């Protein structure tokens, strides 16, 4: 705890902030504009808003949000199929709380529960396995939403269900892998970003190397970092240094958590039960090799197969610009619905629902900033 408190010491943060501002001026002079950095983690988005870093750095650089919120990037078609599952009479849908209020075409999971559907919030996929064991007369479906950080825990839960031979447990997998969508993002000729703040949680599993292509192929710097103000300021400082040096690298600034090779055990259990597949992302369409589907030998535990879900029919809600936000095209304030037609009480899109959504973070911490 003493070590963590050091990362929060005001004096250290103030001194580093001053150094960042000085360096950012030199970069702005070099570029002819302020630098633009993108964070690719919802926890970073919230931390930047909550601590006031975006406001403190305003005028010196721009910090934009990317596809770092797993609930936000879940495709509208997946949301519709999750709602279809909730409407099956013998099914109990289990999910993390963030998914409950994500608007579908005509309803949300929360609204389906109000109409009598069995939808239950759990805090771990293991809770869903326990529920299936306790209620053998119900089909329990866990909604798997998350990145490389979440998928291994779901795989462990599935291993328990397989070991117990539970015939009434299944998973709807909407898991995503981050590096492939980063590649698609970087291939966008309209992307105006000078560097990336990479997700510490994801990299704790993947390690650094899967992101090397950002510098190697696209010539942009990227820094893996943690979630304290000092972490984020340190990552920005490193990005600025790399721009001035003209030598872009992908570096690990979160060495107290992220190892060079990541977590082999987590990847092994994930790879045992899941295989990479093409997947649809909100705002991106189909991204090759960016999803995780249960391997064929575990097909019996795949909810989409077990319940023969049809292709969803839906339309994206008019005016919602979550997709543009996730691609770094706009900030929340540039969406005409933000803080007007779309609020946490009445969300139009998932970016206002999730605790890691950029719109929710801006609304809670920054909507009154000029």
TrEMBL record:
Record keyword ATP-binding present: no
GO BP term, pick one: protein maturation
Organism domain of life: Bacteria
One Pfam family in the UniProt entry: HypD
A GO molecular-function annotation: carbon monoxide binding
Alphabetized UniProt keyword annotations: Iron, Metal-binding
Keyword Electron transport: no
InterPro entries reported in the protein's UniProt record: Hyd_form_HypD, HypD_1, HypD_2_sf
Membership in a protein family: Belongs to the HypD family.
UniProt-recorded name of the protein: Hydrogenase formation protein HypD
């Amino acid at each position: 705890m003493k070590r963590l408190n050091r990362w929060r010491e005001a004096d250290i943060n103030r001194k580093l902030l001053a150094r960042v501002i000085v360096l950012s001026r030199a970069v702005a002079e070099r570029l002819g504009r302020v630098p633009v950095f993108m964070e690719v983690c919802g926890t970073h988005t919230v931390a930047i808003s909550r601590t006031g870093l975006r406001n403190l750095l305003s005028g010196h650089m721009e910090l934009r949000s990317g596809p770092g919120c797993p609930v936000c990037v879940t495709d509208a078609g997946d949301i519709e199929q999750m709602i279809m599952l909730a409407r099956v009479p013998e099914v109990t849908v289990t999910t993390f709380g963030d998914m409950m209020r994500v608007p579908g075409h005509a309803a949300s999971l929360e609204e389906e529960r109000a109409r009598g559907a069995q939808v239950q919030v759990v805090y771990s996929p293991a809770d869903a396995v326990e529920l299936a064991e306790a209620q053998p007369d119900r089909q329990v479906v866990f909604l798997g939403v998350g990145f490389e950080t979440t998928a291994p825990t779901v795989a462990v839960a599935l291993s328990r269900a397989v070991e117990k031979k539970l015939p009434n447990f299944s998973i709807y997998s909407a898991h995503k892998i981050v590096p492939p969508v980063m590649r698609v993002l970087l291939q966008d000729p309209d992307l105006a970003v000078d560097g990336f703040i990479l997700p510490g949680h994801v990299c704790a599993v993947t390690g650094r190397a899967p992101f090397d292509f950002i510098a190697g192929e696209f010539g942009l710097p990227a820094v893996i970092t943690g979630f304290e103000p000092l972490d984020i300021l340190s990552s920005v400082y490193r990005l600025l240094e790399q721009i001035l040096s003209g030598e872009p690298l992908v570096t690990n600034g979160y060495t107290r958590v992220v190892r060079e090779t990541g977590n082999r055990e987590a990847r092994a259990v994930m790879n045992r039960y899941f295989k990479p597949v093409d997947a649809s992302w909100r705002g991106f369409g189909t991204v090759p090799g960016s999803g995780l589907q249960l391997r064929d030998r575990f097909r019996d535990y795949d909810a989409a197969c077990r319940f023969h879900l049809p292709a969803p029919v839906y339309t994206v809600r008019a005016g919602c610009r979550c997709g543009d936000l996730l691609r770094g095209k706009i900030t929340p304030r540039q969406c005409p619905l933000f803080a007007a037609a779309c609020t946490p009480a009445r969300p139009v899109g998932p970016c206002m629902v999730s605790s890691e959504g950029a719109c929710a973070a801006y609304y809670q911490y920054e909507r009154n900033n000029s």
